[in-house]
């Protein structure tokens, strides 16, 4: 296969598939069944997060350090952690970001990037890809603001691909692939704009 491009990513997402790299950089496309999604309307911040939000501990920025967020997400969390975000993936998603279809939500302390997440936006669907934190609660706050954006702009689908303990804490559930594809098709027919939330 030729080098991954933004057009490849768009084609993949609208057909319910997404790429991940193996340890040697080889790309594979995935379409999990069941699929993990986070119902946008039922998310509630954990009680422990509310004081953090009230203190305004973090400065939130949107789309100011997209590639930096991706590179931070690509770092292994532990010695046993496998890395699936290759340089080729970073280049393709950065191209998608430049087209206005991939976005980052970033958290800062004293002008230093300490957490964030990134994903892809098509129609009224947002495909969450990965998140990172260097400071406690930094990625949780980024996710909270992501939900604010999705709610205010009337997104209908938040895809989180695979179920794991990290996404479960945000309310992720598994649905059959066929149901996911129906929701995806409906979301792609709608228009939504990824923009700064009104707080």
UniProtKB/TrEMBL annotation:
Molecular-function annotations in GO: leucyl-tRNA--protein transferase activity
UniProt-listed GO biological process terms: protein catabolic process
InterPro entries documented for this protein: Acyl_CoA_acyltransferase, Leu/Phe-tRNA_Trfase, Leu/Phe-tRNA_Trfase_C
Places the protein is found: Cytoplasm
Domain of life the protein comes from: Bacteria
Family matches, as PANTHER family: LEUCYL/PHENYLALANYL-TRNA--PROTEIN TRANSFERASE (PTHR30098), LEUCYL_PHENYLALANYL-TRNA--PROTEIN TRANSFERASE (PTHR30098:SF2)
Protein name: Leucyl/phenylalanyl-tRNA--protein transferase
Organism name: Spirosoma endophyticum
């Amino acid at each position: 296969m030729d080098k991954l491009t933004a057009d490849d990513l768009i084609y993949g997402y609208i057909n319910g598939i997404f790429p991940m790299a193996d340890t040697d950089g080889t790309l594979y496309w995935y379409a999990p069944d069941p699929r993990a999604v986070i119902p946008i309307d039922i998310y509630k911040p954990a009680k422990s997060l509310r004081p953090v939000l009230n203190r305004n501990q973090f400065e939130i920025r949107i789309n100011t350090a997209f590639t930096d967020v991706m590179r931070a997400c690509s770092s292994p969390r532990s010695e046993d952690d496998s890395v699936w975000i290759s340089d080729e993936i970073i280049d393709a998603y950065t191209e998608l970001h430049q087209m206005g279809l991939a976005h980052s939500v970033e958290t800062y302390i004293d002008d230093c990037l300490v957490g964030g997440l990134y994903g892809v936006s098509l129609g009224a669907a947002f495909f969450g890809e990965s998140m990172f934190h260097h400071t406690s609660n930094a990625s949780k706050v980024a996710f909270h603001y992501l939900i604010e954006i999705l709610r205010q702009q009337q997104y209908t689908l938040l895809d989180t691909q695979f179920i794991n303990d990290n996404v479960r804490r945000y309310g992720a559930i598994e649905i059959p692939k066929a149901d996911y594809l129906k929701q995806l098709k409906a979301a792609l027919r709608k228009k939504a704009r990824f923009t700064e939330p009104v707080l």
